[in-house]
Design goal:
By secondary structure, the chain is α/β, with parallel strands linked by helices. About 30% of the residues lie in helices and about 20% in strands. The protein folds into two domains: about 10-130 and about 315-325, Rossmann fold; about 135-265 and about 275-310 and about 345-365, 2-Layer Sandwich (Dihydrodipicolinate Reductase, domain 2). The strands form two sheets. The chain has a nine-stranded mixed beta sheet. The two termini are about 15 Å apart.
Length: about 375
């Protein structure tokens, strides 16, 4: 898909649809922190809250008002998952570039329709996969690129939290697109695809473990690679009921291991109200718990320093800006959007049928 680049001297004007947790905590401060992007409009049913945080931003009650504004270049959709498809479709038809908070939609067919429409409209449709810019994931990518662990045979990725009380929000209700698999699982699936590509097949188990749970709050996925990564087995796991968490990443290769505890700090920092800026990054995204890298040399385990990598969620919007000015690739491509959504949906199919389901067909995008 080709898009007409925006003149490099022009600031891209952004409308944010939704000012719940994702819009308030992530998108608004990240958009505002990137030079060349202007947070121009926010669609919300709570204008007083928006204006208290962003007094210079125009607030509209209905998304259609933002779509109809010819000054808006980019629309960011940070609403409930079931609303992603109709809102993104309307924005694309209005000639806007569109960012959707993960997951893209609640079905693969909806995602495919939006991707086809974006191609027809010559507009960008991308998904906010911010955890590609987690400090620990960036460090892991460096370690794997260096090849010191040898051929990777086991990759385990956990996103565990302790949230014993079920909150009263749409993500935890019995609705299409709710539950932990499409929430935290969307992060883990995308990271896995970035590292290893599409698996041969996968098996997903889901459960409702908390008292009063109405949708899945635990998942365990097994992904098998063989044709592309000999012997590789991947585990993606998430839970809302883990009082004492284990490692975030466990990676074993033929020559060594990578072990990482603790989550990236950017979300917790954003929750405090601190706003990042590309102009003055400071200590943003620094990881207080570096990974442990062990390799075997002459039969002896040797501990190596982990790469120093700072997390940087701002990079998603900076790359989108550069792409729309014709200077970079889109941060999450159409093929990647399709593969991630396809993998999530195959996982749901596996959970329903209780079996491994083939996934290799996703390699073609």
């Amino acid at each position: 898909m080709s898009t007409q680049p925006v003149p490099s001297h022009a600031a891209l004007r952004v409308a944010l649809i939704g000012y719940g947790f994702a819009g308030k905590t992530f998108h608004a401060p990240l958009i505002a922190g990137v030079p060349g992007l202007q947070l121009t409009c926010i669609s919300s049913s709570k204008p007083a809250q928006v204006l208290a945080d962003w007094p210079q931003v125009r607030v509209v009650a209905e998304p259609a008002a933002a779509f109809a504004d010819p000054a808006i270049d980019v629309v960011v959709i940070a609403t409930s998952n079931t609303s992603h498809h109709p809102l993104a479709k309307a924005a694309l038809l209005a000639g806007k570039h569109v960012v959707i908070d993960k997951p893209c939609t609640v079905t693969l067919a909806e995602t495919e329709e939006l991707l086809a429409l974006a191609h027809t409209q010559q507009r960008v449709l991308t998904v906010f996969q911010n955890r590609r810019w987690d400090a620990d994931f960036l460090a892991l990518q460096q370690v794997l690129a260096q090849g010191g662990l040898g051929r990777i045979v086991h990759f385990e990725s956990h996103f565990d939290r302790y949230r014993p009380v079920v909150p009263d929000r749409w993500r935890d209700q019995a609705l299409p697109g709710s539950g932990l698999w499409l929430d935290l699982g969307a992060h883990l699936a995308d990271q896995c695809l970035q590292l290893f590509g599409c698996p041969d097949d996968l098996l997903l188990d889901m459960a409702q473990q908390r008292d009063g749970a109405r949708t899945n709050d635990w998942f365990h996925a097994q992904l098998r690679y063989g044709s592309t990564q000999p012997g590789l087995r991947v585990i993606l796991h998430g839970s809302a009921l883990v009082p004492v968490t284990g490692p975030r990443f466990v990676v074993h290769g033929t020559l060594g291991s990578f072990i990482k505890y603790g989550l990236d700090t950017q979300e917790d920092t954003l929750k405090t109200g601190r706003r990042p800026s590309l102009d003055s990054p400071g200590d943003w995204g620094q990881d207080p718990l570096p990974a442990e890298v062990l390799v075997y040399r002459d039969g002896q385990a040797v501990s190596l320093p982990a790469p120093e990598a700072a997390g940087n969620y701002l990079a998603f919007y900076a790359q989108l800006r550069d792409h729309l000015h014709g200077r970079a690739a889109v941060p999450v491509s159409a093929v990647q959007v399709h593969q991630a959504m396809g993998l999530l949906m195959l996982g749901e199919q596996s959970a329903r049928e209780g079996r491994f389901v083939p996934a290799a067909q996703l390699r073609g995008g």
